[in-house]
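To the wet lab folks,

You asked to see what we're planning to order before we commit. Fair enough. Below is the target structure as tokens, and below that is the sequence we designed to fit it. If anything looks off to you, flag it before the synthesis order goes out.
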């Protein structure tokens, strides 16, 4: 396969099947073949170039770039070299491919993608050849009647001869009606004839054929023989002219054969990039970051062969914990997790986007080796265990610090005690080598080793004991417990048999299972708490952003208002000054004390009016709320009573619940309405998040969480909330929307604006 991925590991990871998914996105067989040839490389420079071109192609595809009709012309070029001439229909694939190449060259040259433009500029300009083909061959794959002057003249002569022959034969039929078997003109042996009765031989005709009964003669009258002879000559000349045209066109094609072959390689590569870009868009795939460190961080990875059934996997390995031991029940997803780890590393180093989150970081590996699945060698008389051991021995012999090792069901297929001992020895050897490794096992000693060893990460596949079904979710830091006895009891095995089986277990095994169960419970509780805290922190972040935006808007409006008021005041002052100037001029001209007193009185009135002008609204800052004041949380949040304040934090009582929020989020408000009488039958939740994240859940799990969350919102008195379901394929969002339509207490729901999550978030209004 390649130095990174050998044939055994490629088969284990089903690498070729995933390549076929990518190849389906190609526009031609050329591109599909280029995709199938992609293998992981340990060449960092090559990979960086591929990623740069892929990013440009993804942008081009989003902007509407598409490839036209491309054909694999290599077989036709080989035939042209061998025979020197092609049929007229063979030139259509050449014309379509050359036209598509010209379109690609023009489109990418004008695009803002320098690497793709440089690649497209390497395509040769085949405009003269393309023009010659279209002037010679029509859209049906036939030689055009006007391909050459000689062909046009010969075709015109043939039409004239045919008309002249048919007219002569019609006159002959008119003159000799009594000898005519059927008044039609037909052809025999490429010559025009008429059907006559057997007695017509005396008319001096040339008989070419007789009917099976002998009653009809297909004869050629003597007067049309020279015309038919000339027609045959013209037909021969037409064949020679067509052959000459095709041979000449094929010769022109062969002159450009080398350039066309190079163009096909460039087009195949571009189509391979196009297929990978379309795959990335269809699967919401990303180009991961690479590191030279022994570090692997896979976030929200979805195995493409599982389609919409894929549950996102997140798993992190590093220098401190380079080995992960994955445990859990059968069919719980351990093997899928191993395959996903190896497959995504291989795809990324082959220059193929992976369906995972953008935070994914992968190590730059020299080798990926695996031992996954059942295998038995009949020819070498090896058991399954022996076959696996031989493969593991080879892996240990070639692994180094730049190797990813994947081992499924390590230690299985033999005596459990000996298998566990072998498994522990192999794990210790992997730690000594310093490679990254992922191991799946059922053996309790291996589970305990993973818990105790500081450089081993213990993980498990979550199992729902209520439904007796795996969730396919990876739980880091918690080993998986064996569920065999519990599942057997739930399925109806008599309790006394279950107890008898449990009694067969050693005290150490029972204690280990109890510890694992307790760890699993604590891990699940911590995960739920962390999810709620993340949702609440995100809600507070959005509230703060909205608050700051509104404060800024208020400041801008205040500035505009003050500016407007200042301009108004300046106009009043200018008007007052003008009137004062007029009054002073009148006082100078006034004669008599009474007139001057009247003017002075008006001056005093103006001064009083200006000094008594009330300040404009908004000039006095609003007083901050104090303890005991009614306040509103956020611009549109609930109203409560401020009960305490410590620095920048405030405690507010809302509907009988106390919440701690930043003091900057509080604004004065009217007194809140009185709390309704308590209803013991429906307890009000003390804490409830205004957001619910269901990313990574199956549809059924998500709908259960949505129902519980909506119930808590209703009982807490909130009317609005946000469901974070992510984008993905859109199936989860569709199922949630269908469910919300059936709930009578859901007043409205809609997708969030782009700046708040877009089609990855649904806003719900209750009523």
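Sequence we intend to order:
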């Amino acid at each position: 396969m390649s130095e990174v991925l050998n044939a055994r590991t490629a088969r284990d990871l089903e690498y070729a099947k995933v390549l076929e998914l990518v190849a389906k996105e190609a526009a031609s067989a050329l591109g599909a073949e280029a995709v199938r040839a992609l293998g992981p490389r340990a060449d960092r420079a090559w990979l960086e170039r591929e990623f740069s071109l892929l990013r440009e192609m993804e942008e081009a595809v989003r902007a509407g770039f598409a490839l036209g009709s491309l054909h694999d012309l290599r077989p036709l070029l080989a035939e042209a070299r061998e025979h020197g001439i092609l049929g007229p229909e063979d030139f259509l694939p050449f014309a379509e491919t050359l036209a598509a190449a010209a379109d690609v060259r023009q489109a990418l040259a004008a695009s803002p993608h320098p690497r793709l433009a440089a690649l497209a500029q390497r395509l040769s300009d085949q405009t003269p050849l393309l023009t010659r083909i279209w002037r010679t061959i029509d859209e049906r794959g036939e030689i055009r009647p006007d391909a050459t002057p000689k062909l046009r003249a010969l075709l015109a002569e043939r039409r004239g001869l045919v008309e002249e022959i048919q007219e002569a034969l019609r006159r002959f039929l008119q003159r000799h009606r009594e000898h005519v078997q059927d008044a039609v003109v037909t052809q025999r042996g490429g010559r025009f004839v008429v059907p006559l009765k057997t007695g017509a031989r005396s008319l001096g005709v040339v008989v070419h054929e007789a009917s099976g009964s002998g009653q009809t003669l297909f004869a050629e009258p003597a007067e049309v023989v020279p015309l038919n002879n000339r027609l045959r000559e013209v037909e021969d000349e037409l064949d020679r002219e067509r052959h000459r045209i095709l041979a000449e066109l094929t010769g022109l094609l062969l002159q450009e054969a080398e350039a066309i072959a190079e163009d096909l390689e460039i087009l195949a590569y571009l189509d391979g990039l196009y297929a990978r870009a379309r795959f990335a868009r269809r699967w919401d795939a990303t180009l991961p970051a690479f590191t030279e460190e022994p570090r692997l961080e896979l976030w929200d990875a979805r195995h493409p062969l599982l389609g919409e059934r894929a549950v996102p996997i997140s798993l992190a390995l590093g220098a401190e914990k380079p080995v992960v031991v994955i445990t859990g029940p059968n069919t719980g997803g351990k093997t899928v997790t191993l395959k996903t780890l190896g497959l995504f590393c291989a795809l990324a180093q082959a220059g193929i986007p992976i369906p995972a989150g953008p935070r994914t970081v992968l190590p730059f590996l020299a080798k990926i080796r695996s031992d996954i699945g059942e295998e038995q060698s009949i020819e070498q008389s090896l058991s399954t265990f022996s076959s696996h051991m031989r493969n593991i021995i080879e892996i240990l012999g070639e692994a180094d610090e730049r190797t990813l090792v994947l081992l499924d069901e390590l230690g299985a297929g033999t005596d459990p005690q000996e298998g566990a001992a072998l498994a522990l020895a192999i794990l210790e050897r992997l730690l000594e080598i310093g490679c990254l490794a992922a191991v799946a096992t059922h053996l309790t000693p291996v589970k305990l080793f993973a818990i105790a060893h500081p450089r081993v990460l213990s993980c498990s596949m979550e199992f729902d004991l209520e439904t007796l079904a795996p969730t396919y979710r990876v739980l880091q830091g918690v080993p998986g417990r064996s569920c065999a006895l519990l599942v057997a009891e739930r399925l109806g095995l008599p309790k006394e048999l279950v107890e008898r089986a449990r009694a067969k277990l050693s005290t150490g095994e029972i204690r280990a299972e109890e510890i694992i169960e307790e760890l699993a419970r604590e891990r699940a509780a911590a995960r739920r708490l962390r999810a709620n805290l993340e949702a609440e922190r995100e809600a507070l972040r959005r509230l703060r952003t909205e608050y700051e935006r509104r404060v800024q808007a208020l400041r801008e409006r205040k500035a505009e208002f003050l500016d407007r008021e200042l301009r108004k005041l300046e106009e009043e002052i200018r008007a007052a000054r003008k009137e004062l100037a007029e009054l002073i001029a009148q006082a100078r001209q006034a004669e008599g004390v009474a007139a001057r007193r009247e003017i002075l009185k008006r001056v005093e009135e103006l001064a009083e009016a200006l000094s008594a002008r009330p300040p404009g609204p908004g000039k006095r800052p609003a007083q901050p709320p104090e303890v005991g004041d009614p306040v509103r949380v956020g611009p549109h949040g609930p109203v409560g009573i401020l009960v305490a304040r410590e620095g920048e934090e405030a405690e507010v009582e809302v509907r009988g619940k106390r919440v701690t929020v930043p003091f900057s989020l509080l604004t004065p408000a009217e007194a809140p309405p009185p709390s309704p009488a308590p209803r013991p039958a429906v307890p009000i939740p003390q804490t409830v998040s205004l957001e619910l994240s269901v990313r990574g859940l199956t549809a059924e799990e998500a709908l259960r969480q949505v129902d519980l969350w909506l119930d808590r919102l209703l009982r807490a008195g909130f009317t609005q909330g946000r469901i974070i379901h992510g984008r993905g394929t859109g199936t989860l969002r569709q199922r949630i929307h269908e469910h919300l339509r059936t709930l009578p207490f859901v007043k409205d729901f809609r997708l969030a604006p782009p700046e708040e999550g877009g089609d990855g978030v649904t806003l719900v209004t209750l009523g």
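Structural context that might help your review: Residues 33 and 331 are 35 Å apart (CA to CA). The domain at 14-126+256-283 is CATH 1.10.1420.10 (MutS, DNA mismatch repair protein; Chain A, domain 3).

Thanks,
Computational group
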